[in-house]
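Researcher: Let's try something more involved. This one mixes different molecule types, so please make sure each is placed in the same coordinate frame as the others.
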Amino acid sequence: MKDKYELTSPNMILAFISATFGLMNFSAACLTLANDSLIAIGIIRMLLGVVLFICAWINLLRGNIDGNLNLIYAVCFGLFSGGNMILTVISRTLHMEFAPVIYGLLQIFAGAFIGCLLPALRNVPFYSWLKYLCSVLGLLFFGFGDFFWNSNITYYGGWCFLLFTLLSLYGGISSILPGLPQGKSLKQILHASKSL
Amino acid sequence: MTGKNSIASPDGALSFIFFIFGSLSWYCATFTLDIGSLFTAGFIEIVLGLGTLSASLINVIKGKARANINLLATFLLGFFPGIDHVSMAICGYYGISFSFRIFGLMYILGAIFCFAVMLRRYDRPLYRQAGTLGISLGLFFIGLGECTNLKLLNQIGGWCMLLFAFEMFYFGLSILYEDYGLALRQGASLKERLEQKHER
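Model: All components are placed in one shared frame. Result:
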């Protein structure tokens, strides 16, 4: 007798990884970290980025189009940031000339792309939409901070990422406890405000 | 949204990564970068190249003809420039002389393939054909710049790559909007425009 296999939804681990990325971004922007902490964060990011990539693959194989968004997040939060953090520490240690401008530019472009996608995500629960908005603002603040070499701008991005972490946490817990209230979607809220 | 037997298309995310590749190529070809930034760009290109390789494989499994073009773009925009930039940075750091002519020749070869793809896309929206023309011209000028060591040619190629990056930005958004149930304007194709002109 043959057993039927089905790919399991990786949504819980995706939420956990997103929350971890957000928390690491917050700590890198709002707390003063030494070189060893930075390189540890960089390596963890790269590894989590690879796991997020595999989860995105699983979602795509399951026929879930959210896999595309997961893949974009794996690139922005895992591979870009991890690589940048590792190279920042290496350049400091080797006294190599290094400007984070190129990385800032990439973050601005990524923020603009996800920002333009926000109207299409009107059917997801509002807290989830807010999570995407926080990631866009965080990416833009981080991008402009790196582009202009101004840590004050990055600091605001850190707080956006803390909110992103909390909302990802709620999303992750919701996939463990399906009974938790999800609230209305942006479309429903806009529809309700129009009918008032 | 979730089908048990159908694999979702990774084209939205692929377009986003190709948009990042285009932006990186523009930035590296147009401006003079320090060693660290060159190394970062090369490193990101190689890592993202692995990402597009895996996403292109999904298109191969799905049986899409576009998978071949995705794989071609993975090599031309991910692995070749990545290795090019990393070797540039390492040679610059240690003061070793290194000829980039071989990379230039590979870019020119890739440009010919991309030009053929552009000709094939005459029935696609015009902005898509313009973007493909952008990448073929971009690769050609960057290749020529690498072969002749002329920065001006590289810069011309860089601006052509920015055209390709914008095409990928809009195309990626169009796919994702369609997936989520909305449609963005695509415009007429060159074929349709020519037909309309003949009718008049």
